Amino acid sequence: MYSTHLTPLMFLERSAYVFRDKTAVVYKDKRFTYKEFCARVNRMASSLRDAGIEKGDRVSFICRNTPPLLEAHFGVPLAGASLVPINIRLSSREISYIVNHSGSKAFFVDTSFTDLITPIKEELSTVNIYINISKEGMHKKLPGPEYEEFLSEGSEEHIEIPVEDENEVITINYTSGTTGLPKGCMYTHRGAYLNAIGEALELGMNSDTVYLWTLPMFHCNGWCFTWGATSMGGTHICLDRVDPLEVYRLIERERVTHLCAAPVIYIILSEYMKRNKLRLSHKVRMAIAGAPPPPAVIMAMEELGGELIHLYGLTETYGPHTICEWKSEWNKLPIEERAKIKACQGVSYVGFETKVVDENMKEMPHDGKTIGEVVMRGNNVMKGYYKEPVRTEKVFVSGWFHSGDLAVVHPNGYIEIIDREKDIIISGGENIASVEVEKIIYEHPDVLEVAVFSTPDEKWGEAVKALITPKPGTSPTSEDIINFCRARMAHFKCPRVVEFGDIPKTFTGKMMKYILRDREWKGRKKKVG
Amino acid sequence: MYSTHLTPLMFLERSAYVFRDKTAVVYKDKRFTYKEFCARVNRMASSLRDAGIEKGDRVSFICRNTPPLLEAHFGVPLAGASLVPINIRLSSREISYIVNHSGSKAFFVDTSFTDLITPIKEELSTVNIYINISKEGMHKKLPGPEYEEFLSEGSEEHIEIPVEDENEVITINYTSGTTGLPKGCMYTHRGAYLNAIGEALELGMNSDTVYLWTLPMFHCNGWCFTWGATSMGGTHICLDRVDPLEVYRLIERERVTHLCAAPVIYIILSEYMKRNKLRLSHKVRMAIAGAPPPPAVIMAMEELGGELIHLYGLTETYGPHTICEWKSEWNKLPIEERAKIKACQGVSYVGFETKVVDENMKEMPHDGKTIGEVVMRGNNVMKGYYKEPVRTEKVFVSGWFHSGDLAVVHPNGYIEIIDREKDIIISGGENIASVEVEKIIYEHPDVLEVAVFSTPDEKWGEAVKALITPKPGTSPTSEDIINFCRARMAHFKCPRVVEFGDIPKTFTGKMMKYILRDREWKGRKKKVG
Asked: What distance in Å separates the CA atoms of residue A136 and residue A318, rounded to the nearest whole number?
């Protein structure tokens, strides 16, 4: 056999060869060509090796969306190690768990987070070297070199790709889940290659692609766009803080063609643009995932000139696994209907498989009504949880990955997520999907965001509760919302209680409903539906 | 490991699910949806199994670009067998060799070719069943069922993909080469998957793609577009005879977005369109390969509205391996300069590797001058020649596939093929690339096609000879051509002899210079350069 290993490291090699003088990375006033990007990656890999990193080691990174984290997606595996990107919103305790569990030997720390690391430094016994990624105005540092100094000590000479088996682990992405300790999803070189190519194909990327980093790179390796945009020789626009003014400004200045984000980012961006009477001057493909997008959000963004592409997946599936594959005949429909279709999670990417099944793995009828669990298979399903064979086996019962998400399948074969298994509210024996109630509430003109969850109820066991963030300048009442719902859906599904305030969310925009639910159920036992 | 095998059979499964009611295949007045296309494929696979075809068997096809051959690219491997598509321009003797060498158990024969098979039928001892693909007005048949009858006996029920190892052989493509017996290039499921995806990526295909079959499907499985266009849910427009009127008519009627062909097809098409004052009404991406395209051809086609994409590869590399990856800054250049750049073979596809080396595998300098051999590596290099371990080992010396093509590498890293090793003319000790001379001659306004090759010369050992097909309505003289050349290049490179007439070509448009050369050298010994 004369075939070669699938690894995304080939992407950078090729782009540095073909697009050597093209801009690869933009961050504030810095611009790196592909040749420079590749030289920096080679320097990182060679310095890591000089620092004692060996094949199979792990290297942790806690860093905003700046060039070092992008470089790490190539430099760390080129040194033969696995990259462990850490969510910047975690607590010291969680970070300590991840660095220790992964046994990372090197730890790159953006100096904005030095204060998080200093108190746990003694616990991190496997870490031999800290590298400081300095942020302007941040003077607190860990003992160890500066990032740029670390690079400058390395050699920019070409390094042979050290992959001997394409199923070697390229990154470990820890996912918090809602209960228990974080689990490290292992991504392979093969999986990363195929997923990156999948993103390029599904989102129609090519060498003219300009990709804006609204999505954190630490989240599923930025849904594999770290590798995907590089595969096509596209340009990465780094962004270390998602601010609507800055997002809009960069889209226009850099002629951004693609970006990814959770619904909340699009809500904020569209509100900002409407308020300031702005529109996009060119077509931008916007991938949306992380939570089912309410039709109102899709409509708002498309009216401003965005082309939304709805994706769905989990950390365990390298990010996106399904796409609401758009059919040209739907373009003729009114925007409300288009938005309704686009809210479906859709179908598997090319080369992947998805089913909605009952507890015996029997496929559910495609009737748009019968609810089952989403299971997935293919080269974009993780290799397993790092050092957790039992938890791995549990989610892979019958050879398919069990997502824990509940969905129906429409007659056209498109799936639609109804809810997370644990977000289902059981009131008087009836199952109520919190997402369904949220969708209705989003149609209320004063609602910016809403989370629906269960609260204890003496009579019905559980009742529906809603926490709403109103749009600026509005002040809807609890009664308004309840009446609005009653006019639009079965009364047993309507919220009994409505409160107003901020909704706790992960940095990636996922609502942390378990916090809200736990608050309601403190000291009581909620049956998981 | 919970990953799945890479196989293009997944493409049809997905497209039949996602795009069930979309038109998949068009041929004359027939139109099949993806659901119907998939049902026909399932019927073929199930009938083949009923006919005794087992895992690992071979099935031969001799057929024009009609739906049965497209269906065979999925149906035969779905039955577990390898497809052997046969060039329809071969002689009975060559066909007999291929069917016997591959040990095919079933043989599908387009009735246009019954007369070729009847005389050799007795020799084809492994064939247990013949299936007749009837062409209107052709009544001669081999004993055996009609194709449609054969399908109707099968079941259209879903069949599990029978791949147990992605390196199993999906097709065997026999290539005649210029000397010796045909060699069967083995393509794997993995390679076919990755090449098909590569075509989709590089040519920017998606579900709006309408692909016109100007390229024979029997040639490298239609450069893997049989699978590639299917992967995206595109529409295949079958075409059983390449006639410029019909090509133009179909491009317009079906709103074709992509097609592939050898230069000769573009020459004929552009001549026809110019003569009839026609232009393309929409953008069509046209892949060109099979021979280095003379700049004049690129210019002519682009002036009519085509967007030419220059690819290069061999049967051993699943068809295209390199692409003249286009850079947007080149769009500003005048068409002559653009055409010159576009005539380069360029750089590897994403995920593949190409080098130009000397006999010690040392890379040649990137100076646009030093000539070396093109070698390739990656998942689009064949598994080997079927049942030919020695010939396989020979072309894979040092782990790279040796193409036998000679090229220079330009300072920007793009390769440019100078000639086939055996087409180099050595005159007075000087190497003359026949392709270089041809390029100049193509600039002459009266030249439709030209082949340059060596003829014996008492004084210089070899001399340059040209065979020219003039454009209709012109009659250039030998002197015209020689003077035209002398004004444009070193005199030792100019043809000494010029003749006029038809140039022998393979059906895929490759000039068969060896026929011309052999005619000149009959009874003498030409040193291979």
From this structure: 33
